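Progress against Task 2.4 (sequence-to-structure conversion) is shown through the following example record, which the project officer requested during the mid-term review.
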Amino acid sequence: MKFGVLQFPGSCDERDAQLACARVPGAEAVLLWHGDRDLQDVDAIVVPGGFSYGDYLRVGAIARFSPVMESVIAFANDGGLVLGICNGFQVLCEAHLLPGALLPNTELRFTCRQVDLEVIQHDTPFTNLCATGDILSIPAKHQTGRYVAPDLPLSQVVLRYVSGNNFNGSQDDIAGVRNAAGNVFGLMPHPEHAVDPLTGSVDGLRIFESMAARVPV
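Structure tokens generated for the chain above:
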């Protein structure tokens, strides 16, 4: 299993995402530079958190046009697994690989806190090692994470903030969504920061392990 983790100018969580992927038994993870179109024959892609291109113009709007994203879009359209975390979620929405948009938090400030997420769907490539109703404890840190998607089908909601945990004001407490085909998934909380007992939670590792479980050996 080979993960590819994108690296943009302004990314700050690509190394943690790379290390999280490498914790999956039998997996390796390589960094994919924003200016390259070669995806190096990876089996799955992670678009990490950070501040791609300084969040200029609009979060994720410039990264969406980078050379590597041309290849990621083709990869996703061909059925490849793509995970977007925080800024990566924003990039995938800007690229129209995921529905909806991420707007500034209702309190208009950056917030960092541990949040509880409920698994709404377990039968996805990203949550298949979870059960519906499981609670995942994962940190979140962002200023532009209020998810809005009018008329979003319930079938595309994968994770919800548990009551009292939706600090950004996301529509219907939505924390993570997939595309209609099911192979692209985005969430604002950071599973790559919840893969070691020293952080207080290893719940995030289940997302990376679930992806590996869906990739043919």
